[in-house]
Amino acid sequence: MANLCKELLALKPAVVRGNASEILALGAATGKTQTRGVDSSHGAEDALPAARAIASLHSCVVAVSGEVDFVTDGDCVAMVHNGDALLQAITATGCSVTALIAAFVVAARGTPESDLVATAHALAFFNVAAEAALERLPKPVGPGSFRVGLLDQLYLLRGEDIASRAKFGVYATRSD
Ligand SMILES: Nc1ncnc2c1ncn2[C@@H]1O[C@H](COP(=O)(O)OP(=O)(O)O)[C@@H](O)[C@H]1O
Ligand SMILES: Cc1ncsc1CCOP(=O)(O)O
């Protein structure tokens, strides 16, 4: 596992996305940060030192997903406050938002926007789609209808919906 992580990082990814436990494990596997053990109990902020270390060492962006998402280039840290805990009740949301991050990063190449900004916007897009699905679905919402509603909103949402609903924050700027 540690060797595979090292091989993948050697390919110089633009962005690494994981939940807190995954980023803590990655930091431990690549030998630059310590972890208290890998389980699902970590909040995203717990993994921020590991995320910053990985980002600095490998000159990439690291996104830690969770209730609040943290996105860092090793120095600056942005936060995304959208989404819902029900996203953790369906499989492949982490994989899906990671694919969306790749699409946003590629789309932003050739524009002034950084990979960090593109990554934060992809997370906001995905999580606003989740919020819109929850608003529209009959209550109570379970994982089955939520999965379908989320897919619908990922198709239906427009840029202006994201602009008005995204909740970004700045955790640290370059000089902090
Ligand atoms: N408690 C939560 N509240 C709001 N959004 C969440 C919550 N947990 C996860 N998300 C969102 O769900 C998506 C998948 O993240 P996550 O569940 O951390 O991935 P993974 O499936 O790899 O564990 C991300 O867009 C993240 O922001
Ligand atoms: C078991 C499985 N099936 C499709 S993706 C996946 C693993 C990743 O799931 P998630 O993105 O929710 O962490």
UniProtKB/TrEMBL annotation:
Keywords annotated in UniProt: ATP-binding, Kinase, Magnesium, Metal-binding, Nucleotide-binding, Thiamine biosynthesis, Transferase
UniProt entry tagged with the keyword Magnesium: yes
Pfam family membership, one: HK
Pathway in which this enzyme or protein is active: Cofactor biosynthesis; thiamine diphosphate biosynthesis; 4-methyl-5-(2-phosphoethyl)-thiazole from 5-(2-hydroxyethyl)-4-methylthiazole: step 1/1
A GO molecular-function annotation: magnesium ion binding
Cofactor(s) recorded in Swiss-Prot or TrEMBL: Mg(2+)
Domain of life per record: Eukaryota
Catalytic reaction equation(s): 5-(2-hydroxyethyl)-4-methylthiazole + ATP = 4-methyl-5-(2-phosphooxyethyl)-thiazole + ADP + H(+)
BP terms from Gene Ontology: thiamine biosynthetic process
EC number: 2.7.1.50
Name under which the protein is recorded: hydroxyethylthiazole kinase
Organism: Prototheca wickerhamii
Species classification: Eukaryota, Viridiplantae, Chlorophyta, core chlorophytes, Trebouxiophyceae
